[in-house]
Amino acid sequence: MSKKTKLIKKTSKSFLITGFILIVLSSIILYFYTRNLLQNEIEESLYSTEARVVFAIENNKIQFSLPPVTEIKKVNKLKRKILKDTVIYDASQDEMELFRELTTFKNINGENYQITVRNLVVESENILLGIVISNFAIFLISFIFLYYLNTSRNLKLWKPFFKNLEQMKQFSLTSKKPIQLIESDVLEFSELKMQIETLTQKVQTDYENLKQFTEDVSHEMQTPLAIIQAKIDNIINAHEINDKQFKQITSIQKDIQRLKQLNKRITILTKIDNNQYINVSSIHLTHLINDKIDSYKGLNINNISCNSTEVLMVSMDSYLADILINNLFSNAIKYSRKKDKILINTTKNSLTISNIGDKALVDPEKLFNRFYRESNKNYATGLGLAIVKKICDLYQFKISYQFKANHHIFSIEF
């Protein structure tokens, strides 16, 4: 992805580049235009001087050469006129100077003359340079003034947009307050504000409806499941059933339990997605892990041991902390043989839980996907590790999995 640039910075950069190009181009054009103009003026002056000299010769007036400005001499034959730049010694300046030189050949009163008139170019070059520098300076000062004026104007013009953008960043679906946007006298910004307000109101309404639907479905499912469970218990207690019927009823009970777990976990995932767990506190995770190990011992599960080098404290919702540890424990227990050790290690900012496994997972990259199960041997919902990943993402904990030395190892860095 390309690097993002702020709007004002981008427009200012375009303005700077465009302005700089315009200054340079205008200076170049002005230089050549003025240079050509001055050169025409010099040549016009030369022709004028040459005409005066010819007029003086024709009328037998006093004529003399004044090198290097004017030189008149008789020649044997006429040639074509020559107009060129030449560098000659100027005795008045005691240095070599650049002159524009016009040499013409005229037959006046029956005699051939070579008339050479010159004009200093250095003076016109200085004028030219002065004009270009002045132009450049005026453009530069004007450009700097326009740049700051334009930037200031843009900031004021775009202020409603930036303010509304900040409001949108802070907008939350969980908040029932409507988004508060600033009105603008710019038509497009005003229309954008109206569309955003309409859209956010619709999204909030849809979100509330979806949330209510999820909660209603979750609640309504609990009652029929409890009734089914009670009726099955009555059948078992009030009637004699054979082994085949017992197996069938036991299978139904397992399915009911799985439906209950599925319903509970989908509800948890929905609430995490909706950011409904907002009570963050400092959790003594080492104590929580040890309490869980004691609880499992009460269920005759004694193969879990914990090694804590330091106290592990994390900031999170206490209910989610309990779910996080429960799901990691139940996953390790579910995929371990009864006597295989489940090892837990904690440090000041990490948790590792490992259990023995026969082989590595076929698709470890799918391990945290919803409803993913490596096999159908267990009646798993496929949501336990998805919830673990969702909780880690919520608090920006880094979870990883690896299979090493016949151990499935889950690690969380807090």
TrEMBL record:
The lineage of its organism: Bacteria, Pseudomonadati, Bacteroidota, Flavobacteriia, Flavobacteriales. SMART domains: HisKA. Its EC number is 2.7.13.3. It comes from the Bacteria. The chain crosses the membrane at residues 12-33, 127-149. Keywords: Kinase, Membrane, Phosphoprotein, Transferase, Transmembrane, Transmembrane helix. It catalyses: ATP + protein L-histidine = ADP + protein N-phospho-L-histidine. PANTHER family: SENSOR HISTIDINE KINASE TRCS, SENSOR HISTIDINE KINASE YKOH. One of its GO terms (molecular function) is kinase activity. This is histidine kinase. It comes from Polaribacter batillariae. SUPFAM superfamilies: ATPase domain of HSP90 chaperone/DNA topoisomerase II/histidine kinase, Homodimeric domain of signal transducing histidine kinase. It holds the Pfam family HATPase_c. Residues 216-414 form the Histidine kinase domain.
